[in-house]
């Protein structure tokens, strides 16, 4: 009998997701109501009429911050569509020289042979970069193409923005929800409280993973349609609906692995920086976590193309898709490393640009809407600008997700088929060169 992970038509995980969503939502709302009731706010309903103008002002402010975030989110995609390729290539070629230069400099200052780890790591990395330069070039080019697709099809942001909103609401309800489950079941026995609250947290992780997986699957389906024809968001939604069983199996797997993965995962550039010292090599190369977290991280890494495989090959079998994903990871190893490091640098730059833009918008809003003089009252202007950065910057990661999904889909399609006719001649040539033995 086929495993539940291998079956194409299986509703178990779909039903489990529905139950988990309802349980998390209901207990979250119940916990929030209990919390509000215990606060004894003493609201005078006769005075609510006086609060209406303030409420409208708050809503206007929130709307403006949302519009600012939307504009900045589009700007970060445009930035990547212009400079993504150059950033990745420069990062991959400069990093070895920076490691070697920094290592020699620190050795001259300290005479500590431990810091020569950067010199050795830099030399090894330089050889690897030269050996895999064609794959790196393809990765860089496809990151930029993925950003171009997103820039020209901003509708791809819609499922990610919806997912961000849902995840924000679910997360806000999770804390009072898990508190309610624990307190309610602990009346019977504390052990039951611990078990049920742990189960509730896993349901929450499954719901969060499911929301994100569905949004990502819609992006992947859209890019897959773009690759061969005219894309449509409605067709992408229909495609995901047909593959929902497989998508939610994948979400369940990611939720399960999330329970064991290290919560202090470092970016690729941070891990490269740790190679400066020989004493840090073990933690830098192995992740520095427990064997369980290392195994979970490895399982998630080898399954990174699972969702792409499901949507591109029209399958619901998690087992078959995961096996194909693992094969793809081996094929695209160098490109994946280049992509991870490139995205790490792009991420830092886009966050910096976003912060500058949001501060500028916040200052402009403070001056034009409230008439605040930034020279006479810099604190008030600064606080308003800070609110724009803190609130407006939160959804930007979600708005950049279509670029990441586009890149993964393009990379998979490039290695498993022919370049799209929509790609320019240079991109097609880069892909062909990278696939040569």
Provide the descriptors you would attach to this structure in a database record:
single chain; 437 residues; mainly alpha; 17 helices; 0% strand
How would you describe the overall organization of this protein?
This protein is mostly helical. It is built from 17 helices and no strands. Helix 1 crosses helix 5 and helix 2 packs across helix 3. The two termini are 40 Å apart. The mean pLDDT is 86.
What order do the helices and strands come in, and which of them pair?
Layout: H1 12-39, H2 48-110, H3 117-131, H4 133-152, H5 157-186, H6 190-228, H7 233-242, H8 244-258, H9 268-274, H10 281-286, H11 291-302, H12 306-313, H13 318-331, H14 333-370, H15 378-392, H16 396-416, H17 425-435
Instruction: Please indicate the percent range of residues in DSSP E strands (runs of 2 or more).
Output: under 5%
Give the proportion of residues in helices: over 70%
**What is the CA-CA span between the terminal residues?**
40 Å
Largest sheet: none
Low-confidence stretches: none
Shape: globular
H and E string: HHHHHHHHHHHHHHHHH
In short:
The protein has 437 residues and is an all-alpha fold. It has helices at residues 12-39, 48-110, 117-131, 133-152, 157-186, 190-228, 233-242, 244-258, 268-274, 281-286, 291-302, 306-313, 318-331, 333-370, 378-392, 396-416, 425-435.
């Amino acid at each position: 009998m086929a495993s539940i992970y291998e079956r194409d038509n299986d509703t178990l995980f779909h039903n489990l997701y529905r139950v988990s969503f309802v349980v998390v939502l209901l207990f979250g709302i119940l916990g929030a109501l209990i919390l509000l009731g215990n606060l004894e706010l003493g609201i005078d309903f006769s005075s609510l009429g006086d609060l209406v103008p303030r409420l409208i002002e708050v809503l206007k402010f929130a709307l403006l911050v949302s519009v600012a975030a939307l504009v900045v989110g589009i700007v970060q995609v445009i930035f990547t569509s212009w400079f993504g390729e150059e950033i990745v290539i420069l990062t991959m070629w400069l990093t070895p020289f920076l490691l070697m230069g920094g290592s020699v400099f620190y050795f001259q200052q300290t005479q500590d042979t431990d810091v020569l780890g950067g010199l050795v790591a830099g030399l090894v990395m330089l050889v690897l970069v030269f050996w895999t330069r064609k794959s790196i070039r393809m990765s860089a080019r496809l990151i930029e193409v993925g950003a171009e697709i997103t820039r020209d099809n901003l509708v791809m942001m819609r499922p990610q923005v919806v997912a961000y909103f849902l995840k924000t609401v679910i997360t806000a309800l999770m804390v009072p929800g898990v508190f309610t489950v624990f307190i309610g079941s602990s009346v019977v026995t504390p052990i039951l409280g611990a078990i049920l609250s742990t189960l509730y947290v896993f349901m929450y992780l499954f719901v969060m993973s499911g929301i994100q997986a569905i949004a990502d699957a819609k992006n992947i389906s859209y890019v897959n349609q773009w690759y061969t024809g005219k894309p449509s968001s409605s067709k992408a939604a229909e495609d995901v609906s047909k593959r929902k069983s497989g998508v939610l199996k994948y979400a369940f797997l990611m939720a399960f692995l999330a329970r064991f993965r290290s919560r202090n995962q470092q970016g690729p550039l941070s891990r490269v920086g740790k190679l400066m010292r020989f004493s840090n090599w073990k933690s830098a190369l192995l992740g520095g976590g427990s064997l369980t977290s290392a195994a979970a991280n490895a399982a998630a890494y080898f399954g990174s193309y699972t969702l792409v495989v499901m949507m591109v090959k029209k399958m619901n079998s998690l087992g078959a898709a995961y096996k194909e994903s693992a094969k793809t990871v081996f094929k695209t190893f160098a490109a994946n490393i280049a992509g991870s490091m490139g995205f790490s640098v792009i991420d830092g730059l886009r966050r910096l640009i976003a912060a500058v833009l949001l501060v500028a918008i916040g200052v402009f809003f403070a001056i034009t809407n409230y008439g605040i003089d930034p020279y006479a009252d810099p604190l008030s202007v600064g606080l308003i600008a800070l609110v724009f950065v803190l609130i407006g910057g939160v959804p930007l990661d979600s708005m950049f997700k279509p670029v990441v999904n586009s890149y993964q889909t393009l990379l998979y399609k490039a290695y498993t088929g022919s370049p799209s006719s929509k790609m320019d001649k240079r991109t097609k040539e880069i892909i062909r060169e990278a696939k040569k033995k």
